[in-house]
Amino acid sequence: MSTRCPQGAGSQQGALIRASAESLPIPGADGSVQRAYPGGRGPDAGISGTLIAAIDPGRSTGWAISDGRSGLYHATRGDDGEALARWWRWLRDLLIAEKPRRLVIERAFFGRVADADFTGALVRVAHGIAWSCGVPRSEYAANTVRKSMLGKGAGSTDFERVAAARALGWNIGSDHCADAVLLLEHHMRAAAAVGREAA
Length: 199
Known about the structure:
CATH class: Alpha Beta
Helix content: 40-55%
Largest sheet: 7 strands, mixed
Oligomer: single chain
Shape: globular
Number of domains: 1
Strand content: 15-25%
Strand order of the largest sheet: 1-2-7-6-3-4-5
């Protein structure tokens, strides 16, 4: 996988921020509104292929790809700057290697959650990386996904989410992977329900 940094990243910072702010509301299957963002024209634009990728950002980031693969990425602790830089490189390498046609991101929750600020930073970083790679992205709230896939939002347990992902045929053992899987499955169902290609 490539680990080179984009050329002129500093000069593109304003463009990345503006791209993250420009979004289009699209109704989901349950009447909720997700946020859909176009792909950008950054230094790695044009890599998109046929797969869809989903991530549940956090210190332990769960990821899932529509061909049935999933996994975890553990962010380093200590220096948040180093952790963000390493996470940035990991996600960028993933997008370049897998060439998804869309990245689906779980929205950050800023309630009484440990590391909420760090998770929020990861979500914004994910939008910037995807834009730079020309990958369109969608963002959903966790409660919207859980209500759709489990029948309830708040109050779902790690065990319930893992069991639901396994029932869909995914071989996973982590609740973070389960969150990414359910996010991916919800996106594809919502896209199909409104007559859109699951892209």
